Amino acid sequence: MTPRETLENWQRAGRKVVHEADSKDLLQQIGIPVPKRDPAEGRCVAKLCHDDYPHKSDHGLVRLGLSPQEAKQAAAEMAERFVGGTALIEEMEEGSVAEWIIGCKRDETFGPIVLAGPGGILVELIDAAEIRLAPAGPQTAEAMVDSGPGARLLAGLRGAEPADKGALADLISRISVFFAENADLISEIEINPVMVRADGKGLAAADALIVLAPKANEQENLT
Amino acid sequence: MAEPNTNRMAVRRPSVAEALDALFDPSTIAVVGASRTKGKLGQAVLALLKSNGYRGKIIPVNPSGGEIEGLAAARSLEEIDGPIDVVVLATPVGVALDALETCTRLDVKVVVGVTSGFSEAGEDGHNNEMRLRRIMQDAPFRLVGPNCEGVVRPASDLQLTFSPMFNGLRPGPVAMISQSGALGGLMALRLGERGVGINAIVSSGNETDLTAADLLEYLGNDQQTRVVLCYVEELRDGRRFAEAAQRLTRAGKHVVAVKGGRSRAGSRAVQSHTGAMAGDDRVISAVFRETGVIRARESVAAVDAVTALAAGRRPAGNRVGIISVTGGLGVEMTDLAESAGFEVPVLAEATQTALSRYVPFYGSVSNPVDLTGVVLANPTYVGRCLEAVAADPGVDIAIAIITFVPDQQFIEALAEAFDSTGKPILIVWTGSARSNASGEALRERAVPVYDSPARAASGLSALAATTGEVA
Fold first, then answer.
1. A212 has which bridge partners?
2. CB distance A131–B287 less than 8 Å?
């Protein structure tokens, strides 16, 4: 199934907010790295993904720093409490040097846009995102990681290792192209955070969300 | 009502360019609602069209016929023989819609709808709006407005408006598109006062047919246009507007835009951070920056930016040389320039030597240069000093600050200094209203003149940044 067909199926099924596990499957198809699933060893994170609870932490649906065995147990417990959810066990991303947010949405005036900036908890603290029209070509994406206060963070503040800006720019461009091509079906995509590792070591989308556009007949009803 | 005359019907809807070509250089204009009664829109439109020297054919349209403003009036549009380039609708809304419907059967290129009472009137205007859209659906002409203040083209002596705010403009490099007629008037008046020439002004009103993006594309591509000034509240085809702006700015022209209207809160629940972070206002700033549009926070700042850009001189760098007849204003200008990202470097030794011939020991020849009031004793001194600073190889932009001016020669010396260089020059003249001199020599050359350092700083920012925001 192509990513577009997947989106159409979801829309047909009446989904509005597509949970993390499914969103990541789709992103992986378009070449966006995600953390390793169901690892046999190492530290794990267990999550319960559910369309109705996009803000997982608020509902205690994220458990960090578990062994694979503990993770399975935690996932089973959460699944019992939230019926209809999908359990997700992933390798914990620990080698990253920066957490970034990448988002796409359809602006009422200008159409598809893409946003990138310091993510994770920094989203709550500073408003330093760079915004461009989508699709953003490779040059524009590079300019986005080299602009604004976020650029200093990626370059490595006070001796910190510089982040893999190339991989980040590639992700921005890739997702903005995908979004612009499917903006009739998607109203927003967000990856927050993407864990950016040191230069040359790539990145992984630690959390992701796709908000589907209302079906054509529902759009008419809105206006 | 007359039978539809198929022979006179235009074959198809004119393109934007065909319609606007006709609009800006029309041979025949019909004014529907032309009246002898002072205070009526149609009377004002006709009077301004005549008094501003339009040389083409003007046909007043009024059911009582006869003569209006010395011109033979037609009783209806259908009475007019031959093609009509422009029909102006300046009547109450019901009559205007009837006339618009009539235009669909005639050979008309473009209609300018000054009339109000459509979507902007909410519930009351709803039926009118529906009828308007029905007529426009396959109309063989294009429409400016409705609910607009009209169109001005100084080079064609064309003044299709009821507002005297656009009187006396000279032809030049600035095109203006305004969704608000009143703000367009304010900006036109101020540009005119500074001698900045106007290529065309279109008050686009409700933009039922022709939009700001259409106008930007057309006016921007006009060879005469160097700067496009836009006041917009709602961009219906924002993407096209942004793309057109990008093409212009990449071609070396400037677009200065004011976006009016507070950002609306999102109407639906925000599911993601993206929705909250990419609010309307932030997106506008980002897209304007990306496409090279200079965003002005309000209309007067926009005029200040345009004034500087219209002179057509581009700075090679960000080094500013400031001369002032008073220390305080020089200091304020320096603070503003530096906080806008400019350098105010020490002047070259040769420049300092040249200046010290005019500046007393208690002044300063570094930068900002404090000429002191002594220079007022000789009317040409300030002009000479400005020439010297502008000639300094370490200066990219020169600013002269003056307060009151004792005589005309003083101003002429400044104008000569402007002519002596190709570098951008800005003048801060705080006391123009209290001076014994007119600024005509400066206006003739469209020298950017500001009444305070802060206003000059808006011009300065526009000059060097060519993108970004001006306060």
1. A186
2. yes
DSSP-based three-state secondary structure for B410:
helix
Q: What is the DSSP string of A154-172?
A: HH-GGGPPPB-HHHHHHHH
CB B138 within 8 A of CB B209: no
Phi, psi of B382 (to 5 degrees): -65, -40
For position B262, what pLDDT does the model report?
Answer: 57
pLDDT of residue A157: 86
Mean pLDDT score, B218-232: 96
| Packed helices B349-356 and B381-391: angle between N→C axes, nearest 10 degrees | 170
CB atoms under 10 Å from CB of B2, counted, come to 10
Q: Which residues contact B433 (CB under 8 A, 6 or more apart)?
A: none
Residue A133 with chain B: CB contacts under 8 Å: 239, 242, 287, 290-291
Q: Which residues of B206-245 are buried (b: 16+ CB within 10 A; e: fewer)?
A: bbbbbbbbbbbbbbbebeebbbbbbbbeebebbbbbbbbb
Of A107, A188, A192, the CB nearest to B283: A107
Cis status, amide bond into B146, omega within 30 of 0: yes
CA gap B36, B56 in Å, rounded: 21
Report domain extents, chain A.
3-34+94-218, 44-91
Q: Which amino acid is at B454?
A: A
Contact A101 B235 (CB under 8 A): no
Percent of chain A's residues with pLDDT above 90: 79
Model confidence at B11: pLDDT above 70: no
**Of B221 and B268, which is predicted with more confidence?**
B221
Surface-to-core class of residue B92, CB atoms within 10 Å of its CB (0-12 exposed, 13-18 middle, 19+ buried): middle
CA distance B136 to B209: 8
| Residue of B242, B273, B277 with shortest CB distance to A110 | B242
3-state secondary structure (DSSP) of residue B98: helix
Alpha-carbon torsion A9, A15, A17, A22, what sign?
negative
pLDDT in tens, B402-424: 999 988 999 999 999 999 999 99
Average pLDDT, chain B: 91
For chain B, the residues whose C-beta falls within 8 A of a C-beta of chain A are 234-235, 238-239, 242, 271-275, 277-278, 280, 282-284, 286-287, 290-291
Query: In terms of Cα–Cα distance, which of B397, B418, B388 is closest to B337?
Result: B397
All structural domains of chain B, each given as residue ranges with its CATH number in brackets, are 6-147 (3.40.50.720), 164-262+274-310 (3.40.50.261), 320-464 (3.40.50.261)
Contact partners, residue B390, CB within 8 Å, separation at least 6: B321, B398, B417, B420, B421, B423, B425
Q: Are B189 and B214 in contact (CB under 8 A)?
A: no
Which of B232, B259, B271, B291 best probes binding to A when mutated, by most A CB atoms within 10 angstroms? B271
**Closest of B50, B40, B103 to residue B77, by C-alpha:** B103
CATH number of A3-34+94-218: 3.30.470.20
Residues 6+ apart with CB under 8 A from B306: B174, B187, B191, B196, B227, B229, B254, B256, B462
Report the C-alpha gap between A137 and A215 in whole angstroms.
29
Instruction: Answer whether A141's CB lies under 8 Å from A170's CB.
Output: yes
Q: How far apart are CA A8 and CA A144, in angstroms?
A: 31
Number of cross-chain residue pairs from A and B with Cβ atoms under 8 Å apart: 80
